[in-house]
Amino acid sequence: MNVPPLDGMRVIEGSAFVAAPSGGMTLAQLGAEVIRFDQLGGGIDYKRWPLTDEGDSLYWAGLNKNKRSLAADLRSDRAREILTELITEAGNFLTNFPARGWMSYEALSVSKPDLNMLAVTGNRDGSTALDYTVNAAIGFPFVTGPVEHDQPVNNVLAAWDLICGQTAALGMLAADRHRTRTGKGSNMSLALFDVALAAVSALGHVGEAQVLGTERQRFGNDLYGAFGAMFTTADDEKIYTVGISNKQWRSLLEATDATELVAAIGEQQSLDFGDEGARFAAREEIKAVMQQWTGSHTLAELAERFDDLGVCWGRYQHFLELVADDPRCSTESELFREVEQPNIGTYLSPGSPIAFDGMLSVEPAPAPALGADTEAILSELGLSTAEIGRLADDNIIALA
């Protein structure tokens, strides 16, 4: 693709942690020019773990690829004037900072009536919430973990933050389209807890509690309402396989030589395994039959047979194994490039997972060093070299 899909779109981002930065990066990796502004010296997420031995954050670098960086003393009236001009000139503002005072839609839209602004909050009323507190309240910790466990188990993936970031990016694009069609800007808010509520409702949990008066139990690694299970191979590797569609189910039965034995289970229990719910109901008996085959074959033997027969499966692997051994997480994949990250070194960096005509729309680029683009951005705003120098002398900005 010669021209990235979001070429010409400029977004200013004032953010911290995961949700807003991941939304901005999503736009940047589709071709938008995204300028992130931070406090001099970095904000509260600038040194978040994991850190290199020299103290540079892989977390911060991972969430800010393909962006530009401006650093200023955000407590300074002059810096706020500059940022106001930058935001209103761009016309698109994404933030999870408190949207009040100079950073409110009402203040910013004075100079840009058709401003598009999306403010991410914790709760709808503007009060604080993080992924971890949202997850605690939303119900999933009580259905996660081993069957016999009686305490909540948190999800280590910041799922609500990531979904919120993608929703924020979608909101910015929807507002941009709306402005193109109507000439009107949009004042948007997006609550992290609302994102989780919407997801829990879409997956049936709200309806299950309200309509049926029940809630999900713990099923360990089994797939609720269908057949999905973990198996161990002869060389003690762990794999997960799923039989949701009838085609997947038949392939799995054939691959594990379980067709006749599983049919007998169905007859004994008067279950029709053409129904995925019936497979779930008899999952323990079915797993025992299939484990006989998987437990007598090595991972290599299983992989060859499963792949030949079109079984849907995957191997459990650690992060180190993923990076060292999986070709999907390497430059063999169209997704990744080796990128030189300032102060950290060269390592794998993905572009947008959306492929246009089978190719990346934008080459992966490193996250900028903090404030690396400050001087260039101010020059683009029309500030003279002398003015920029005075700002630096007054410690309102720092020049790279």
Briefly, what is this?
The protein has 400 residues and is α/β, with parallel strands linked by helices. The chain contains 16 helices and 11 strands.
Supply database-style keywords.
elongated, 400 residues, six-stranded parallel sheet, 40% helix, Rossmann fold, three-stranded antiparallel sheet, 2 domains, alpha/beta, 11 strands
Question: How is this structure best described in words?
Answer:
By secondary structure, this protein is an alpha/beta fold. The chain folds into 2 domains: 256 residues, Rossmann fold; 78 residues, no CATH class. Helices cover 40% and strands 15% of the residues. It is built from 16 helices and 11 strands. A 6-stranded parallel sheet has the order 3-2-1-4-5-6, with helices on both faces. Strands 7-8-9 form a 3-stranded antiparallel sheet. A two-stranded antiparallel ribbon has the order 10-11. Strand 7 and strand 8 form a beta hairpin. Helix 6 packs across helix 7 and helix 9 crosses helix 13. The chain starts with 9 loop residues before the first strand and ends in a 7-residue tail after the last helix.
Helix content: 25-40%
What is the mean pLDDT?
97
Total number of distinct structural domains: 2
Report the portion of residues in β strands: 15-25%
| Rg for CA atoms | 26 Å
CATH superfamily of the largest domain: Crotonobetainyl-coa:carnitine coa-transferase, domain 1
Low-confidence stretches are: none
Instruction: Summarize the helix and strand pattern as letters.
Output: EHEHEHEHEHHEHHEEHHHHHEHEEHH
Structural class: alpha/beta
CATH topology of the largest domain: Rossmann fold
Spatially, the strands of the biggest sheet line up as 3-2-1-4-5-6
Could you give a short account of the major beta sheet?
Answer: 6 strands, parallel
CATH architecture of the largest domain: 3-Layer(aba) Sandwich
Our measurement of the CA-to-CA distance between the termini, rounded to an integer number of angstroms, reads 33 Å
| Shape label | elongated
**Helix count, per DSSP?**
16
Strand count: 11
Q: What would CATH call the class of the largest domain?
A: Alpha Beta
